[in-house]
Structure formats: C-alpha cells, structure tokens
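[recover] target loaded
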C-alpha cells in the first residue's frame, strides 16, 4: 500500500502548498502495464476507511494499492466521530500448511493461471512450496519464460485481478457518490480534498434556491464507467472542479466514458478552493 500526498511540482515546486496534479502519474507510472487500485479520499473518514481497505485488497488480490491524497487534506484539522476499527485481515488465496504438505516437491505453481487472476500463496516455511522469483517474465512456477504465448497469458492474468477486485470487493458507493438532489440543474464533478469546500458551497447554493448536486469520484482505478455515465447523461449542466492545470480527472472521465466536460473551474496556484469561490462560479453558470 502506497500513500501519495500531492503538492505542487515540478521538483521542489511549492513544498508548503497543495495540488491535485499527480493523478495521471499514479495511474500510469510503471515499466509496462500492470493493475493497481487507486483510492481518492475526500475527507478524514474516507482516508482512514480507504487505507484500511487498501491493506486487505492489496493482499487479497496481490497487487499494489494507492491512497492518493494531498497536503491540504493531510494537514487539515477536523473533529470526527471515533473511527470504526472493527477490522479483520483478509489474506486472500492463502493455502494451509496441510495443503502444502500434501503437495509433491516441485508441484507448487506460485503464479498459477486462474479464472480470477489471483494465484494461491504459501507462507514462508511451508513444505514443498519453494519457487523461483524472476524479475523477467515468468511462467506458473516462477521460472523465466519469454515466449510470446506465455507473455500474453501472464499479461491477461494480471489484468484479470482488477476486474475481479471490482466485481467482488467494491460497491458503487465505494467508487463514486452523488451528493445532493438527484434532479438538479447543475452537477459538479470532482475528487479528493475538494469535497469539503464543494459540499459547503452546495449547501448554501441549495438553501438559496439553486438546484445543484455533486458527483464525487472515489476511485481512479478501477473506474466506475457505467455509474458515472448514467449520472452524467442525466445531468442538465456540468462543472468540473480540480486543483491542477490540465483537468486531469476530466481527461480520465473522457477516456473512460467518452463524455467531455466543457465547463471547468481549475485552480493551480497551490491554494485550496474556498467555498465562496465555488459558490460564485455556480451562480455564474
């Protein structure tokens, strides 16, 4: 599990200010292609809950999980109810020592092809489960195998993990949330720490007779394309709000859904949004 706290770059940039410009970096940084989960917490409670869940999902699906936050959220002070710490570790596809003992030496396939993409693990010290770990592409036993057929199968195997994770372990609510009235004249779209200022502006706007809601994106990968499309297709007017110069989440939405959000409110001076700024922007549309 990797927690990435964003602040403005490049290089030292603005080390004491905030930003949301690492989204694409975290989504794509790699040598080649491999699956990853990216949580986007918007407040203290979500940061705790998503980090807790990330540890389970990283182990269960044997993949790296990111919690992408920023300096604004990381240094904010807020009173919250006590966190729910009723936590049970999920080790996923973990074989028992008796199952390992029943195997023949050399029979264990650490990277076995499965329908889910997840292979069974053995704990250190289990009998009959010694295997090779190669930084090259490998076959089911872990030995190096650079054949085209094996390479294709291994890439597909790894990709299956994210599909399985989304189908088994993430609800729609954990991937996106619509705040405010379903029938609105304006739908705001954002992610991460902009949640607080947006919700405050949303409350004032609706109390003042405007009809506004807010689509909060909670995971960048996997992306809830179907749910997001449904909400955006029903929206009468949309406004994208982000603290980066390239509308990075807007680009992700275009990539995953084909929908272009033309109205954008972007801030990239290192300062977080103020609710009054968002309210003024809402009124201007």
């Amino acid at each position: 599990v990797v927690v990435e706290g964003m602040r403005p770059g490049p290089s030292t940039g603005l080390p004491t200010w905030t930003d949301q410009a690492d989204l694409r970096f975290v989504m794509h940084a790699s040598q080649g292609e491999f699956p990853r989960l990216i949580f986007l917490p918007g407040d203290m409670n979500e940061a705790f809950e998503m980090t807790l869940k990330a540890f389970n999902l990283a182990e269960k699906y044997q993949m790296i999980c990111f919690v992408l936050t920023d300096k604004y959220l990381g240094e904010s002070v807020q009173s919250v109810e006590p966190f729910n710490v009723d936590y049970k570790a999920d080790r996923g596809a973990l074989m028992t020592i008796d199952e390992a003992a029943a195997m023949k030496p050399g029979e264990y396939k650490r990277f076995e092809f499965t329908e889910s993409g997840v292979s069974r693990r053995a704990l250190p010290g289990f009998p009959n489960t010694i295997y090779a770990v190669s930084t090259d592409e490998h076959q089911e036993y872990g030995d190096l195998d650079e054949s085209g057929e094996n390479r294709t199968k291994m890439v597909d195997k790894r990709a299956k993990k994210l599909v399985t994770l989304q189908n088994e372990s993430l609800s729609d609510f954990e991937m996106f949330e619509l705040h405010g009235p379903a029938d609105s004249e304006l739908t705001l779209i954002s992610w991460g720490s902009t949640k607080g200022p947006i919700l405050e502006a949303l409350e004032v706007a609706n109390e003042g007779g405007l009809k506004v809601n807010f689509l909060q994106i909670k995971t960048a990968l996997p992306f809830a394309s179907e749910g997001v499309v449904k909400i955006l297709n029903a929206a009468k007017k949309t406004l994208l709000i982000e603290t980066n110069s390239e509308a990075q989440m807007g680009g992700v939405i275009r990539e995953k859904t084909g929908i272009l959000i033309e109205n954008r409110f972007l801030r990239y001076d290192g300062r977080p949004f103020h609710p009054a700024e968002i309210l003024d922007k809402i009124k201007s549309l």
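[recover] notes: The two ends are 40 Å apart (CA to CA).
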